[in-house]
């Protein structure tokens, strides 16, 4: 886990150009280290149409709030930014999965706020589908089963197994988050970031990044300690960046599992200062990712390099998506004042 200074009084909110940021979005733009340039997949519009068609076929667009939520989150746009070089078949699965996870996550949050135990049927169905190929009993379960089918048809058996394993980890994380939210005392920083790692839902996409390569990675590459560390760093950075932009939304909703809000609780500081502390942690994480990637690159095959570049794509994509997605519009409306 990257370290960060705990002395929030040392944080400066003025960019190097001397012009103070007027809102949180400008503050993030001015200080976040983003070495990866903006890219967008040429199949983005096709993937967006594919998401709409898939959600209709699964019967999910008829459920309350889903259509509006998809319009606010733009899953195909996020997929396009995260996976700018993949072909349409992989991009469509990524976009479908992002849409599914947004629906699943929002529903889990709604149920979990009332009672963590109320999540058990929903989560148990998902685990049974992913682990045992059990038949679904709900529309959301049917969507997951179909997504699982798409992955197995496009990926190798080993890649599909890794996808299912990482997806089960994400499902379990939502229960941990609900328990933490229901506890009378907010979780400490370490516990909050551990739960956030589970609920990020980023690592299930890495087997799809591998599937986009011309060949399957060797076990030596896939399980190399540095590649494993790169996976962890990229997933953390990718999910922490949206936390910066969503902090206002989460604070208003009473959310706790958010990196910026965890810093605010730990240091009892203003939200802009907490965002700056979170940016320091993210910048440290991204720089470690850059350094390790450069060190390991000579040892990797072209497929291995492409696989790690897929991880970097999530860091890039989550940033450029978070800046403009309507879901996080409050960040541009919140003053960057201590």
Automatic annotation (TrEMBL):
NCBIfam families: amorph_syn. Gene3D superfamilies: Farnesyl Diphosphate Synthase. This is Sesquiterpene cyclase. It holds the Pfam family Terpene_syn_C_2. InterPro entries: Amorph_synthase, Isoprenoid_synthase_dom_sf. It comes from the Bacteria.
């Amino acid at each position: 886990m990257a370290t960060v200074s705990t002395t929030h009084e040392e944080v400066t909110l003025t960019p190097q150009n001397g012009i103070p940021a007027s809102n949180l979005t400008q503050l993030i733009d001015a200080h976040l280290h983003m070495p990866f340039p903006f890219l967008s997949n040429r199949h983005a519009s096709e993937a967006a149409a594919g998401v709409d068609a898939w959600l209709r076929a699964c019967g999910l667009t008829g459920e309350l709030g889903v259509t509006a939520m998809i319009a606010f989150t733009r899953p195909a746009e996020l997929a396009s930014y995260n996976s700018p070089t993949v072909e349409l078949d992989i991009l469509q699965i990524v976009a479908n999965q992002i849409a599914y996870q947004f629906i699943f996550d929002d529903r889990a949050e709604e149920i979990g706020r009332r009672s963590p135990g109320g999540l058990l049927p929903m989560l148990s169905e998902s685990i049974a589908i992913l682990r045992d190929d059990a038949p679904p009993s709900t529309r959301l379960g049917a969507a997951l089963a179909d997504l699982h089918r798409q992955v197995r048809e496009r990926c190798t058996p080993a890649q599909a197994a890794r996808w299912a394993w990482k997806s089960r980890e994400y499902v379990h994380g939502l229960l941990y988050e609900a328990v933490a939210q229901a506890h009378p005392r907010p979780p400490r920083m370490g516990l909050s970031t551990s739960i956030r790692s589970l609920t990020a839902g980023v690592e299930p996409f890495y087997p799809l990044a591998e599937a986009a390569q011309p060949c399957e990675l060797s076990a030596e590459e896939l399980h190399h300690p540095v590649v494993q560390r790169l996976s962890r760093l990229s997933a953390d950075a990718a999910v922490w960046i949206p936390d910066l932009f969503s902090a206002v939304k989460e604070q208003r909703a009473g959310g706790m599992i958010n990196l910026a809000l965890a810093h605010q609780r730990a240091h009892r500081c203003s939200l802009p200062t907490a965002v700056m502390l979170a940016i320091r942690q993210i910048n440290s994480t991204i720089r470690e990712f850059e350094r390790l990637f450069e060190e390991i690159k000579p040892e990797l095959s072209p497929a291995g390099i492409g696989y790690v570049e897929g991880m970097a794509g999530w860091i890039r994509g989550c940033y450029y998506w978070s800046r403009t997605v309507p879901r996080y519009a409050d960040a541009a409306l919140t003053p960057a004042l201590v």
